[in-house]
Amino acid sequence: MRAQQPVPKEALQRTGVLAADRPPAGVPGGGGDDAFRVLVTMLRAGSASRGARAALREALERAGVAADGVSDAEIIVAELAANAEKHACGPYELRVHCLSGIPVWCEMVDGGHGLDGILAILAGLHTGPEHDPAPFAENGRGLLLAHRLSYGHCYAYPTTMSVGGGAGKAVAFALPAPSCGGYR
After folding, report:
1. Number of structural domains, the chain?
2. Contact 95/7 with Cβ under 8 angstroms?
3. Which of 24, 112, 116, 173 is disulfide-compatible with 154, CB 3.0–4.6 A?
4. What positions does the domain Histidine kinase/HSP90-like ATPase occupy (predicted)?
5. HEC profile for the chain?
6. Residue 26 lies in a domain
7. Would you place residue 101 in the very low, low, confident or very high pLDDT band (cuts 50, 70, 90)?
8. Beta carbons within 8 Å of 45's beta carbon, 6+ residues apart
9. Dihedral sign computed on CA atoms, order 10, 161, 35, 25
10. Residue 159 belongs to what domain range?
11. Tell me, what CATH number does 61's domain have?
């Protein structure tokens, strides 16, 4: 299920998107339109990674993001969706925040409440020396990949589910810019 939700202008302060980052008139998605929209995709348990990758790829390709940027964002969202399914309860949703038609922020949302472990890992990645998990470990790389591929623009916070209004949590990251194909 997909829906677009308008977001109040006050919420723009929380996105970290500066006026200078918005596309000018004459550029696809530009033209002075300050519309802030959120594309919400409900994800099915058991296939959340696949659904999240497809929805995000479609939004980024439509905005003109280069293939490398799309691939990096797909890896990040697949890891975050897999983490959500493994460690948290549903429902699961993907939110792609768009400013003037350009995707700028992505949230993988689940119905879980446990943020402490995620916040501790991200804090360590933001402030400490980067580390790699054991070379042959099968787990423990999702947040590290998200952090590295988004150039440190990966965060977690409590949120409200779009459907039903229940409490949930989001693990989010900045999306690559269409003009350069990579990350900001």
Report:
1. 1
2. no
3. 173
4. 50-150
5. CEEEEECCHHHHHHCCCCHHHCCCCCCCCCCCCCCEEEEEEEECCCCHHHHHHHHHHHHHHHHCCCHHHHHHHHHHHHHHHHHHHHHCCCCEEEEEEEECCEEEEEEEEECCCCCHHHHHHHHHHHHCCCCCCCCCCCCCCHHHHHHHHCCCCEEEEEEECCCCCCEEEEEEEECCCCCCCCCC
6. no
7. confident
8. 85, 90, 92
9. positive
10. 2-7+34-174
11. 3.30.565.10
51 in a domain, yes or no? yes
CB 49 within 8 A of CB 82: yes
Tell me, yes or no, whether 12 lies in a domain. no
Q: How many CB atoms within 10 Å of residue 60?
A: 25
Encoded tokens for 139: 């787990």
Residue 119 is encoded by which pair of tokens?
Answer: 């916040």
Tell me which of 22-31, 51-60, 80-89, 110-119 is least confident. Answer: 22-31
Residues 144-168: tens digit of each pLDDT: 889 989 988 999 999 999 988 999 9
Tens digit of pLDDT for each residue in 13-72?
333 344 444 445 444 444 445 688 999 999 999 999 999 999 999 999 999 999 999 999
